[in-house]
Write a structure and sequence with these properties.
The longest helix is centred in the C-terminal third of the chain and has 23 residues. By secondary structure, the protein is of the alpha/beta class. The chain has a 7-stranded mixed beta sheet. Strands 5-11 form a two-stranded antiparallel ribbon. The radius of gyration is 27 Å and the shape is globular. The termini are far apart. It has a domain of 284 residues: Alpha-Beta Complex (Spore Coat Polysaccharide Biosynthesis Protein SpsA, Chain A), CATH 3.90.550. It binds 2-acetamido-2-deoxy-beta-D-glucopyranose (NAG) (3 copies). The site of one 2-acetamido-2-deoxy-beta-D-glucopyranose has 4 residues, from loops. This is Glycosyltransferase family 32 protein. Keywords: Membrane, Transmembrane, Transmembrane helix. Pfam families: Gly_transf_sug (PF04488). One of its GO terms (molecular function) is hexosyltransferase activity. One of its GO terms (biological process) is glycosphingolipid biosynthetic process.
């Protein structure tokens, strides 16, 4: 027995040794799943210093490069820019809440705190909007028409007009969709051709060759240059053609601004120019031109004159002791660009079954917001734009939230057109 028992024990021991340690594997799997879940859902970085790539715009390099003097009062005096009014006056709205706004609905709620105020609404008596279409890449079609419609339906047309910049004004003007806007909205909508030579006159860019060859295969470098030149010459608000405006941007124009790239804090992608506001002959743009003129020419299809330029400029301004331009939080103009929890649903896919814990269409919730759709509509009213990130070939699903938004805008557009016709 003893021998037997010993043998048995021995076999058991061996078996034990050979047994797969399921418990341990399970624990390790759980840990990994939790890490992956946390990272995906909350964008939590467990090793914040290790995993981020080194910044493309290195601090050290930039600390020693001075501003070019665009903010010297004597120099500003010779331009149309009013330093006292635009830079030294106290702003009414805060555009940075001091938190990174990537949790819950705080970004949208913050956007909702910025409300129009009659006392100040005459601050900007006239506002020019700019956008850009390259004629040789894609046809200007209904999808692009939605962007123009959204401008006409949401901005204050008593003081606003829109310039659609292009590399071929004659061709674009006879495109059926565009021809209709020209006919229906004279004095509000116009098409203009980019003339680099004329638009760079009197700036340091007049002498640089990179502008001649700027037209790349994605309209990125030229798009980035055109927005800065259009704003330098006319001032106003820029928006890209791949967005649907949802709210009057006028309320934000006491600030000069670009937008936050997304909510993820990637050191290489911080600032975005898909919507921006600068005043005519703004010294901010003057400093941007200085960087463009003194740095190597941009790589085609790159962000050299976009995100990276804004970032360099931002750093230089602060280092040079100048109050930097503002940055709109991600959700203000790009509510798709954060983690799934708080981003808007994909505009090109069918509406989700639920949103933020509420069944999409079954009004069973409590309080004024009773279903997911209503909740989303509340958020749409707080923000200024839905950025579609190109995706030119995709269509909006039937009955989806974008289609409903466009229908609402079409109704408003009809009302505005009738009003206009009644005056004329
Ligand atoms: C600049 O703005 C200030 C404050 O609004 C105003 O008093 C002043 O007249 C303006 N200057 C010019 C040259 O328009
Ligand atoms: C939402 O409510 C409808 C109607 O009550 C129901 O058919 C559907 O399954 C619900 N959807 C989800 C995702 O709970
Ligand atoms: C979009 O569609 C056009 C024609 O329908 C095609 O020529 C083009 O390659 C497509 N682009 C993409 C990115 O799929």
């Amino acid at each position: 027995m003893i021998l037997n028992g010993g043998l048995e024990d021995h076999t058991n021991l061996r078996r034990k040794n050979n047994r797969i340690p399921w418990k341990r594997i399970l624990v390790i799997l759980c840990i990994f799943t939790t890490i992956i879940f946390l990272r995906r859902r909350h964008r939590l970085s467990l090793f914040p210093f290790k995993e981020k790539p080194p910044p493309i715009v290195p601090t050290r390099d930039w600390e020693h490069r001075p501003l070019s003097g665009c903010f010297d009062p004597e120099r500003v005096e010779r331009t149309d820019y009013n330093l006292t009014q635009f830079l030294d006056s106290r702003p009414r709205h805060t555009l940075n809440a001091g938190s990174n706004m990537k949790f819950e609905m705080e970004c949208y709620d913050f956007a909702g705190t910025i409300r129009p105020d009659e006392r100040y609404d005459d601050m900007t008596s006239s506002l020019i909007y700019h956008t850009y279409w390259r004629m040789d890449l894609l046809p200007f079609d209904q999808r692009e028409g939605y962007t123009i419609d959204s401008f006409l339906a949401t901005q204050d047309l008593s003081r606003s007009r829109l310039i659609l910049w292009t590399n071929d004004a004659a061709g674009l003007s006879v495109t059926p969709v565009v021809a209709k806007y020209l006919m229906d909205w004279p004095g509000v909508f116009e098409v203009r051709e980019v003339d680099v030579r004329e638009m760079t006159e009197g700036t340091v860019l007049n002498r640089i060759e990179a502008l001649e060859g700027m037209y790349d295969g994605s309209a990125w470098v030229d798009g980035d240059a055109v927005r800065l030149l259009a704003l330098w010459n006319h001032g106003g608000i820029w928006f890209d053609m791949d967005e649907i405006l949802t709210r009057d941007l006028g309320v934000l124009t006491e600030h000069e601004f670009v937008t936050q790239w997304d909510c993820r804090d990637d050191p290489n992608l911080i600032l975005n120019g898909h919507i921006m506001h600068f005043r005519r002959q703004s010294p901010y743009l003057c400093e941007a031109f200085h960087i463009m003129a003194t740095e190597p020419a941009p790589t085609p299809n790159s962000l050299d004159w976009g995100a990276f330029l804004y970032q360099k400029l931002y750093r230089r301004l602060m280092h040079g002791g100048v109050k930097p331009f503002s940055v709109l939080p991600w959700c203000f103009t790009d509510p798709r660009n954060c983690h799934d929890d708080i981003s808007f649903p994909n505009p090109f896919e069918k509406d989700p079954g639920s949103w933020k814990g509420l069944n999409w269409s079954d009004p069973s919730g409590e309080g004024p917001i009773r279903d997911g759709r209503q909740h989303l509509e509340k958020r749409i009213n707080q923000i200024w734009s839905i950025h579609l990130h190109n995706q030119w070939n995709r269509t909006f699903p039937e009955g989806g939230y974008i289609e409903r938004l466009l229908e609402k805008q079409a109704d408003e557009l009809g009302v505005r057109k009738n009003k206009r016709n009644a005056y004329n």
